[in-house]
Amino acid sequence: MTTLWSGRFDTAPNAQVLEWGSSFSVDRRLFQDDVTGSRAWARALGRAGVLSAVEARQIDEALEDILRKGLADPALVTGSDEDVHSFVERLLVERLGDTGRRLHTGRSRNEQVSVDLRLYLRRRVPVLLEAVRQVIAALARQASMAGDALMPAFTHFRPAQPVLAAHYFLSHAAPLRRDAGRLAAARADADALPLGSGAIAGTSYAIDVRELADDLGFSRVVSNSIDASSDRDFAAAFLFACSLTMVHLSRLSEDLIILCGDEYRFFELSDAISTGSSMMPQKKNPDPLELVRGKTGRAIGQLMALLTTLKGLPSGYNKDLQEDKHAVFDAEDTLAGCLTVVSAVIDGLTLNRARMAQASSGLLLATDAADYLVGRGVPFRRAHEIVGALVRKLVNEGRELTSLTPEDWRAASEFFAPDVVARVTAAASVAAKRTPQSTAPPAVRAALTEMEQWLESERGSR
Ligand code: ARG
Q1: Best mutation site among 110, 111, 230, 313 for ligand 1, i.e. most ligand atoms within 8 A of its Cβ?
Q2: How far is Cα 113 from Cα 199, in angstroms, rounded to an integer?
């Protein structure tokens, strides 16, 4: 293996140990970003007068060619190099000799790996954001198609109150939208130029870091070279955003596994994303959703791995930090795959409206009966008791609230007038809600419109 630091040592490195410590198989994914950063560094050295204009141009052109060839054939990005930085520099020196050997002037791999990962996240987070947007769009389409379909909402996983199915679909879109905000914030964290920090103390060459930041499209420059050499907050923020997005996808998956299951059958999964059993011919299994739920542990694991790596580090760069990239790439891949699968699952859902309607009626209208009494002047606590007693009786008799005649109601309380029969229905319950975040049909329509507008504005924004 060729290294960038052999001069200091008497003996050749232990090949096994060196290979074990190599990060090239993982950080080759930063190839494009490493070349981008190095080209800008060469230009900055040229502007600072460290490289002649001719040298700076030669390096820039050689790196451009290396990049073009590496992107055209990724198999070329390989070798026994210690890491991607060593690889790119080796190729450059093979082409330009001593001119190539001038590129690393005033620069350290400590800042190079930081700038690479920052550039990487800057270009990759938008891809994830678009995938999150696709899941939200699929949920919004289901909300739109659901129209006035009703379903029970759950607390303690017991049917609680009727809601519009559209309200339910939007309830899963809301956290994903916050996730998009967190992913964008992690990208903003990464948006600072670390170059100019040197190995730890800064650089002795007159690099205009503001100009270099502009050249690379960074909106700001880091504030402290010691901090910059070991700051991976942006990577941790990214992993947290990925983890929480996965948590939300996992909860959605869990809901769908249950609500598409034989006990509920509110929704039907499309055959295209379902799987069968090798033994039981009747089975239609939600494997993709189970995998999303399962892979969530993996994304959370990567966040824990990085935080644990960071917690004991002394000040400045330490090689432990090399572990960051595996965590970032694995979490990114895991999330990207899950987002694609969940979009397809949502798009393939069909609603079993009859079952949903049936499950929305019955004893879960008890709160509406109590609210009716409140409307007649009964204190809520009294109303709760009256309806509670009525529910107890109905449960014993195996009956539902909707089976009560006006006389039955009146027997429970003199305040129940005949209009209670029409007031205690699932549709009336939903229509009675008053707040903007509620399941009232006009509120849900407004929420859906607002979500669609957000989706549209996000579409253009990247
Ligand atoms: N491969 C290293 C990493 O990923 C690059 C930085 C190496 N710096 C050093 N001083 N050895 O962290």
Answers
A1: 110
A2: 11
